[in-house]
Amino acid sequence: MFKAIVSAETLSSTLDSVSVLVDECKIHLEEDGLQIRAVDPANVGMVDLSLEAAAFESYEADGGLIGVDLSRLEDIAGMAESGQLVQLELDEETRKLHIQIDGLEYTLALIDPDSIRQEPDIPDLDLPAEVILEGKDINRSVKAADMVSDHIALGVDDADEFFYVNAEGDTDDVHLELTPDDLIDLQVGSAHSLFSLDYLKDMNKAIPTDTEVTLELGEEFPIKMHFGFAEGQGQVTYMLAPRIQSD
Amino acid sequence: MEFAAFATHAAEIEAEPADLEIVDLVTDLFEDAGDADDDLAILARFVQGRVFPAWDSTTLDIGPRSCYEAIARAAGQNVSAADVEDDLAEVGEIGAVAAGYEFGGQQGLGAFTGGGSANDLTVREVHETLVDLATAEGSGSQDRKVDLLFSLFNRCSSEEACYLARIVLSEMRIGVGEGTVRDAIAAAFDVPVDRVERALQVSNDYGRVAVVAREEGLEGLDALDLEIGRPVQAMLAQAGTVTDALESWEEAAVEWKYDGARVQLHYDGAETTVFSRNMENVTDALPEVVEFAAEHLEEPVILDGEVVAVDDAGDPLPFQEVLRRFRRKHDVAKAREDVAVEPVFFDCLHVAGEDLLDEPLVDRHARLESLLSDEGLSTLWLTDDTAKIEEIDADALESGHEGIMLKDPDSAYSPGRRGKHWLKRKPDVETLDLVVTGAEWGEGRRATFLGTFLLSVRDGDSFETIGKVATGITDERLAELTDRLEAHIRTEEGQTVELEPAVVFEVGYEEIQSSPTYSAGYALRFPRFLGVREDKGPEDAETLERVLELQGSQ
């Protein structure tokens, strides 16, 4: 059983956060809210999302599991105007999701969850450095690096206490430093890892610029990025594996 | 099997120049396949650079550019698809280009879950990922394909990357053909080559045959049958002459060679599937064939035939028109209004659970006749009479088709084989411009037309006869020729007319033979009328000397 009413914005944010990594996902319809966990085909980038029941106008679920085609569902959510509500109801028998936006009714065929890539185990990482900053600063870092390279190095200088971004291109380089004054918070620790911009650019798309984002970093370790959405009633964690640094 | 092990085998095979040694090496590969069925089946395909069975027309549907992009992403910092393309231009071959990069720079999250480093890529994982890639469709599917391919390249060593890139772009080229795989299956699992060959013909699936040979041996192979819905390769013809046909067989089975496109119809008693010659499913593009099946078929069958495009009067249209219909994916109904197609069937491979491949052609045709009565049936004449064959050929040409097929009446149906059992009549090698020096009045309906024309070559100032063209001319054309030639009649005796040399015909033929029948001392075998040489007079006609030259060069 699943029946819910949610704002179009919240639904879109939820879907967009996941669709930057995968095209299809499983959604757990728990009693206290939604849970989505997915990893890209190369097992490099992962998303772990939860949306509390309180984020919905109304929410009833009893622990079901559905598989959805994200771009399809995003298209439907995109039909709603700002402020409109979307009503979702699962038909257990036909395994279809009935979606209603005002007078618009859409019946979405679901995907067999077994045909969707297995949900990842979440690595239990103890990352030494933590950086809290605004989404727009991540956006700026990614943009700057993208001008010269397809990779980005993120690190924390624990002696001088700043967070930095490095990108090395064939000819040009980019370096950006953010001191504690520029950041919301910085917990120094030894951290420097190289990441593929292909992934980070996609993740960046889903991070609202005005949101507080927490980065956890280590030495040649995956990065974790947390942020909230839907007034804090939704939580997204991205995790991205590093590239081995050639030199 | 690990993909790395496959790559090592492939590299050894590629380095080996001798065909027999290659068979040994492929045999080794099959013996090393490990117990899982999947692995052997996949290896039997991968080694030929295939991902899917031959009967399955699924493709990866990934462009070279997407493959370069995946390689670039896996290759490391600041390598772009354009760089890969530049390397390719220099190196000339994608395998070597891929092998030139260092992959694996991108770590997976798995490396941090405490489960140790990522496992080595297996043949099965590569296969599963490629199947996923093939099934990705819709918006963004090209990106998804690149992601999936990247996930593979990222885990490849140089050698693995080389063969992965080649499989993806269908450029395996390690010297392994279908025959190699057949022989290797026979050697690896100790079964006779001809039985493997038969199993391959009916199943059209190298992977499955390899597995059956290993698991069930000869008995299993022999039990493989045609399956409705799984296309087999079409039997093919080679070029040949009427002379070849009648020398090889007592009688020839003669049928029209339709100017259409080959189709294989599978009907399971309810559903119809139509496949093109390269085994693509073209059912949706050809509703006429589906309707034909619904109307005329009752039992499950597999039929071999052609679809012909026809105009409103039912006359055939050029081959291009048929192709236009084959490629049509949308608006089929509209296309159908513009160009209608009709199926014509000439062979029957399977009826109601019974495979007929090994039955003689004439028996298969008899089954076909009983299934179809007259509708959509290609007539088969059995004859050893060259004049009759000539007539069939002429009728076929007159009806707008390509000529005739000559088939061995006793031959089995050999899928995928271009053998001597089916001959398509060779087009004329050479044509001659010959003077019409005589004719005969026709009979019956054609009594008022000059019908059979006596042809001559120039020999100095005189003309010597060399053959007759009897048919292959439409009524309209005959009336026109009669008009022209009547003015030149010298004498008449019964039906036979002597003409003064005036009109020149362009005539095709199969060969020139010495012959006492004609005054030139030579005769044309299977002459055909091609047209009137309006630009030539009798003085421009071919000389006996030239005919001697041509005969000498045969």
From TrEMBL, chain A:
Keywords: DNA replication, DNA-binding. Residues 6-99 form the Proliferating cell nuclear antigen PCNA N-terminal domain. GO terms for molecular function: DNA binding; DNA polymerase processivity factor activity. It holds the Pfam family PCNA_N. InterPro entries: DNA_clamp_sf (IPR046938), Pr_cel_nuc_antig (IPR000730), Pr_cel_nuc_antig_C (IPR022649), Pr_cel_nuc_antig_CS (IPR022659), Pr_cel_nuc_antig_N (IPR022648). PROSITE patterns: PCNA_1. Transmembrane segments: none annotated. It comes from the Archaea. Coiled coil: none annotated. Residues 122-242 form the Proliferating cell nuclear antigen PCNA C-terminal domain. SUPFAM superfamilies: DNA clamp. GO terms for biological process: leading strand elongation; regulation of DNA replication. Sliding clamp subunit that acts as a moving platform for DNA processing. Responsible for tethering the catalytic subunit of DNA polymerase and other proteins to DNA during high-speed replication. Belongs to the PCNA family. Homotrimer. The subunits circularize to form a toroid; DNA passes through its center. Replication factor C (RFC) is required to load the toroid on the DNA. This is DNA polymerase sliding clamp. It comes from Natronoglomus mannanivorans.
From TrEMBL, chain B:
Belongs to the ATP-dependent DNA ligase family. Its EC number is 6.5.1.1. One of its GO terms (biological process) is cell division. It is an enzyme of class 6 (ligase). GO terms for molecular function: ATP binding; DNA binding; DNA ligase (ATP) activity; metal ion binding. Its cofactor is Mg(2+). Residues 334-459 form the ATP-dependent DNA ligase family profile domain. InterPro entries: ATP-dep_DNA_ligase, DNA_ligae_ATP-dep_bac/arc, DNA_ligase_ATP-dep, DNA_ligase_ATP-dep_C, DNA_ligase_ATP-dep_cent, DNA_ligase_ATP-dep_CS, DNA_ligase_ATP-dep_N, DNA_ligase_N_sf. PANTHER family: DNA LIGASE, DNA LIGASE 1/3 FAMILY MEMBER. The lineage of its organism: Archaea, Methanobacteriati, Methanobacteriota, Stenosarchaea group, Halobacteria. ATP binds at E255, R262, R277, E306, F346, R418, K424. CDD domains: Adenylation_DNA_ligase_Arch_LigB (cd07901), OBF_DNA_ligase_Arch_LigB (cd07972). Keywords: ATP-binding, Cell cycle, Cell division, DNA damage, DNA recombination, DNA repair, DNA replication, Ligase, Magnesium, Metal-binding, Nucleotide-binding. This is DNA ligase. DNA ligase that seals nicks in double-stranded DNA during DNA replication, DNA recombination and DNA repair. Signal peptide: none annotated. The active site is at K257 (n6-amp-lysine intermediate). It catalyses: ATP + (deoxyribonucleotide)n-3'-hydroxyl + 5'-phospho-(deoxyribonucleotide)m = (deoxyribonucleotide)n+m + AMP + diphosphate.
